[in-house]
Amino acid sequence: MRADRRRPTPALRPTQARRPRPIPRPPRARPRLILRRTPEMTNDAIRSALEAVLEDMGAPTGTITLEQPRDPTHGDVATNVALTLAKPLSRAPRQIAEEIAEKFDLAAAGVDAVEVAGPGFLNFRLASGSVVSALDDILEADTTWGRSEGGKGQAVMVEFVSANPTGPLHVGHGRQAALGDGVAALLDWTGWKVHREYYYNDAGRQIDQLALSVRARYRQALGVDEAVPDDGYRGEYVKDVANALVAEVADRYVEDNSDEALDAIRTHAVKMLREEQDRDLNDFRVSFDEYFLESSLYSGGRVDGTIQDLKNTGLVYEHDGATWLKTSQFGDQKDRVMVRSNGQPTYFLPDVAYHMTKWERGFERVINVQGADHHGTVDRVRAGLQALGLPSGYPEYVLHQMVRVVQDNEQVKFSKRTGSGMTLRELYEQVGVDVARYFFQMRKPDAHLLFDLDIALDQSDKNPMYKVQYAHARMCSIFRKGEMELEDVEAGSAELSMLSHELELELVKRLVEFASVIERAARGSSPHVVCDYLERTAGAANSWYHAGNPSRNPELAVLTGDPALRRARLALARAVQIVLRNGLTLLGIDAPTRMVREDDQEN
RNA sequence: GCGCCUGUAGCUCAGCUGGAUAGAGCAUCGGCCUUCUAAGCCGAAUGUCGUAGGUUCGAGUCCUACCAGGCGCGCCA
Questions:
Q1: pLDDT of residue A70
Q2: Of chain A residues 20-59, which have a beta carbon within 7 Å of strand B?
Q3: A344: how many CB neighbours lie within 10 A of its CB?
Q4: pLDDT tens, A213-234?
Q5: Which residue has the higher pLDDT, A575 or A94?
Q6: B37 C1' – A74 CA distance, angstroms?
Q7: What residues have CB less than 8 Å from A159, skipping those under 6 apart?
Q8: Beta carbons within 8 Å of A589's beta carbon, 6+ residues apart
Q9: What does the alpha-carbon distance between residue A540 and residue A44 come to, in Å, rounded to a whole number?
Q10: Domain CATH code at residue A67
Q11: Residues A410-434: pLDDT tens digits?
Q12: pLDDT at position A535
């Protein structure tokens, strides 16, 4: 059955291209009538063969799980059914496994061998060529390899960053920007229709503090002695905003303490700082489909409408002059105030109003990416939404821990511009956007992130981001060396079963896993899973590449003498390149075809 | 005091739905090397999975208690 994939040795045909083509290729594969064998199909075949045996033995068939063993000596596919059946059949697991192995139909499952191992595992070794044939699928899929359709095109909103426009973005926002963008990309790659949203809190008390701080600096700039409020903003950037205001309006507001004047200052400050944030994010390759302004909730009447709606639920009461909502009925630790005794709504209210708009805009699934310091608001917001009839788990949250930037074993805290922590821009202008994005995504959100500048600045393979980029560039360099283009290697152009070296087979197995890795990462909103995969795959690719170094094992080189073997290895190199590139693309990182070190440029 | 997160090799961290002998990178040690251009390659050593119980064929993974660290517990945002 494997034989039908073989193609006759191609007849040589004249080189036809403008470019030299050192490697004669077979004619483009005929329309492929042969069903391609995906890993899922292989598993299905094994599964149904197992079900047949279990039925024969009178055992339940519902619980078969197949997995890929870590240890390659445990075969290509393994199952623990015999272990799980020990109890229902009240027999020793190994004995059950022996019987299954004996009755198993190897040919029907496309398996070369099955053996019993350990406490009763069944290990299957796939027919040779079955694994390696997946390379054609990778070449065929190219930029879409790794994509899947589980999301069925449904709409999902990812809200992230949502920083107050009161100052420059810092490294914590950077983690959130990269993480949120990664989560959004994972959803996109698994078939969701993703909407990226940024919520600007442009209406709160903090904005008032900003306006007062800017006004003080503005007056100072014009020689008037006015102190910045105690709880105001003190970073250097406030002076920049004030100086820009001087340039724009000269001394118009020096003695004007009216609300109108303060409004104008506030508007000026918010506009300028928002523009700076947008610039910082844009240069960090993060962009949004929609910017939602908190102020629009008030001006559009949504906040008042939400109070009314909540009152209509009968879950609202007055106490000590304030208006409360019985959020404790929905799992919150205590009831919350919606409207203070002074008539001002608390932050809780616009928050609920905002999330109602998400639902009403058609997003039945929403993921909020936030710093873990906000976890206290999760139950509260959900409770408010439940009171209005939304489902209990709405919205979902990805909460991430803080970032520490470390250099020479010491924490970097200083930023001239903000007077406190390092800004996002300061970070990525130092280490590069690719490294910053990778480092922010390579740890699971739950864990504190230690951003080690020494490693980030290292441009060797010690830096995981460069390790992946180097592996990608190495694959590309093979093609340059062979005077070919990447596109010259097409699906069906090689006799893939010639790939038989352990390093090659290990690599192929990894490449095949790619889509399931992305699905798992998407399921857990965990871009770090992709980083981990890319790093390991790059490691395997680098080992393979280095093994073929002419000074070591020239017979393992991709550009080896045997044309057929060379074609097969080029297909593998191309497939590696595709997977690494797609993975980096998902993470929002470049996949250069060649690497230039800064040191090289200096020379 | 209550709630959430974290605790895995010297360091930074993976560990999928509970599976086989707990894995990477850095650092350390040993040996190669100048390339299918890439400060490189190959190999070795390293563990009380915070502690103590429990669940079961099987626990780093699930449950309970405790210890340590971070964060949150306003009519602040």
A1: 66
A2: none
A3: 9
A4: 999 999 999 999 899 998 889 8
A5: A575
A6: 38
A7: A180, A197, A198, A199, A358, A366, A367, A368, A369, A395
A8: A434, A437, A438, A465, A469
A9: 28
A10: 3.30.1360.70
A11: 888 777 777 778 999 999 999 999 9
A12: 93
Range of the domain at A573: 464-602
pLDDT on residue A41: 60
| Residue A101 CA, nucleotide B51 C1', distance (Å) | 43
In this structure, is the CB of residue A480 within 7 Å of any atom belonging to strand B?
yes
Measured from the CB, is A532 under 7 Å from any atom of strand B? yes
Helix (H), strand (E) counts: chain A: 21, 15
| Residue A25: pLDDT over 80 | no
A525 touches strand B (CB under 7 A): no
Strand B proximal residues, A:570-599, Cβ < 7 Å: 594-599
Which residues are CB-neighbours of A421 under 8 A, at least 6 positions away? A170, A171, A172, A413, A415
Q: Which residues contact A360 (CB under 8 A, 6 or more apart)?
A: none
Preceding peptide of A395 cis, ω within 30°: yes
Asked if strand B contacts A206 at the CB level, meaning under 7 A, the answer is: yes
Name the DSSP class of A41. Answer: H
- How many structural domains are present in chain A? 2
Does any domain span residue A78?
yes
Q: Which of A68, A99, A126 is the last residue of a domain?
A: A126
Q: What is the pLDDT of residues A135-194, one digit of tens each?
A: 999 999 999 999 999 999 999 999 999 999 999 999 999 999 999 999 999 999 999 999
Strand, helix or coil for residue A458: coil
Chosen domain end from A111, A126, A141: A126
- Residue A460: CB less than 7 A from any atom in strand B: yes
In a domain, A226, yes or no: no
| Residue A277 included in any domain | no
In terms of phi and psi (left: phi > 0; alpha: psi -120 to 50; beta: otherwise), the region of A116 is beta
- A70 CB less than 7 Å from any atom of strand B: yes
pLDDT, tens only, A375-416: 989 999 999 999 999 998 899 999 999 999 998 888 887 777
* Nucleic strand B near CB of residue A229 (< 7 Å): no
CATH number, residue A598:
1.10.730.10
Average pLDDT of the residues in A302-329:
93
ipTM of model: 0.93
- The pLDDT of residue A7: 32
For residues A332 and A398, what is the distance between their CA atoms, to the nearest angstrom? 19
Range 258-287, chain A: CB under 7 Å to any strand B atom: none
Instruction: Answer whether residue A119 is part of any domain.
Output: yes
Q: Which nucleotide is nearest to A348 (CA to C1')?
A: B77
* Length A54 CA → B57 C1' (Å): 19
Calculate the angstrom distance between C1' of B22 and CA of A443.
20
